[in-house]
Design a protein that fits this description.
The protein is of the alpha/beta class. It contains ten helices and 14 strands. Helix 3 crosses helix 10. The radius of gyration is 38 Å and the shape is globular.
């Protein structure tokens, strides 16, 4: 009995010791990372590294966003910058420059619109026939590229105001004097000079001097002052089409009218300025490409220039808004005074580039552009 009790006691002590050892071992095992936990720690470390790299990449991309990249590529920078090697030598004459256009040509102060800049740069007489809100057909009516006829009438001998009925050669409406004169007056009908007025939507003519009573035949051409004053040695600058809001198909109408304007002026020295208002002309790239194809070196793609070089040449550090504009294909805000019209910087740059192209084509002698006297904005 005593032996049995001792054996049982020994067994119980041994079992207690075994259990104690297992518990200790288990705790030790728990305190040591398992393979899965170790792998988790490595994966977490890698994730931290990847996150850091992603942040660095994002920061880099954000920094790179300040680099203005134009969606319109330019492969002819020599036309905009550097020394000019004219295609043809100038004859040395000081020509007259005549600018036809809409509100993008109008000068409100006589010194800051691009025709004013052309005058300062060239020393030439510059005539500005810009009228706001006109499309290409309206501009061509004033210039003579789209003929305007008078319905049969009789001009009295005195200087009384009489009604006259005007229609375009294709029997369309006439829009003289709706937003400005723009070279309409003094006009003439069948050689009789006078003034055209628009009253309550109808046109009236008043001859300048008394003379003989004159019968005017149906289809007699109405001649504006701009038409009569045209000279073969003039350099024509045509900046038209924005108010047409053309697409890749309708641009052919603008091209046809501009060619008619050149024919009416008997002019082979001319500059055609490209369109800039991408917001209203979704196919503006195709429109300007069509103009470029038709007029070649006579065509100044000023939008391409402004997107690629405008801010830098104006000495303006691009804002985030400018960058966003350029990436959308819009003239940067720092060069505009509203959604479509340029500010003083814009007009200075446009005047300089048009004058530079005149030098390149041999219309005027090559010289430094010099200072335009632009005031701070």
């Amino acid at each position: 009995m005593k032996k049995t009790f001792l054996t049982y006691l020994f067994f119980m002590i041994a079992m207690s010791a075994f259990i104690a050892l297992r518990v200790h071992a288990g705790r030790a095992e728990e305190s040591r990372p398992s393979d899965t936990a170790a792998k988790a720690e490595v994966s977490s470390s890698q994730m931290t590294t990847l996150a850091d790299e992603a942040q660095k990449k994002a920061d880099k991309e954000e920094d790179e966003d300040d680099t203005v990249i134009s969606p319109v590529k330019d492969d002819a920078e020599y036309l905009w910058h550097g020394s000019i090697e004219p295609k043809k030598d100038s004859d040395g004459k000081i020509p007259r420059i005549v600018c036809w256009g809409d509100s993008l040509t109008v000068s409100v102060d006589g010194k800051t619109a691009f025709p004013d800049i052309l005058r300062d740069l060239s020393g030439c007489e510059v005539v500005n026939y810009g009228v706001e809100s006109e499309n290409t057909a309206m501009i061509a009516m004033r210039e003579g590229g789209l003929r305007v006829n008078v319905k049969a009438t009789v001009l009295p001998a005195d200087t009384n105001l009489i009604p006259v009925f005007l229609r375009t050669e294709n029997d369309g409406h006439v829009f003289f004097l709706d937003h400005g004169d723009g070279g309409v007056n003094p006009c003439s009908i069948n050689g009789i000079e006078g003034e055209l007025q628009k009253l309550n939507g109808s046109y009236y003519f008043k001859r300048s001097q008394k003379g003989e009573r004159l019968a005017v035949d149906e289809g007699t051409q109405f001649k504006t002052f701009g038409m009569k004053d045209s000279k073969e040695d003039d350099i024509l600058v045509i900046f038209a089409g924005t108010n047409d809001l053309p697409d890749s198909r309708s641009v052919k109408n603008i091209i046809s009218l501009e060619k008619s304007m050149l024919e009416a002026a008997k002019c082979d020295r001319y500059i055609i300025v490209g369109l800039t208002y991408a917001g209203g002309i979704p196919e503006i790239d195709a429109v300007n490409e069509a103009l470029q194809k038709e007029f070649g070196d006579h065509f100044v793609d000023i939008r391409k220039y402004m997107l690629n070089y405008g801010l830098a040449d104006a000495g303006i550090t691009p804002s985030k808004e400018d960058i966003a504009d350029i990436r959308k294909g819009e003239i940067p805000s720092s060069l505009r005074r509203d959604y479509v019209h340029g500010n003083k910087h814009y007009h200075r740059l446009l005047g300089e580039q048009v004058y530079r192209r005149m030098q390149y084509l041999g219309y005027v002698p090559v010289s430094d552009l010099g200072e335009t006297g632009e005031e701070d904005i």
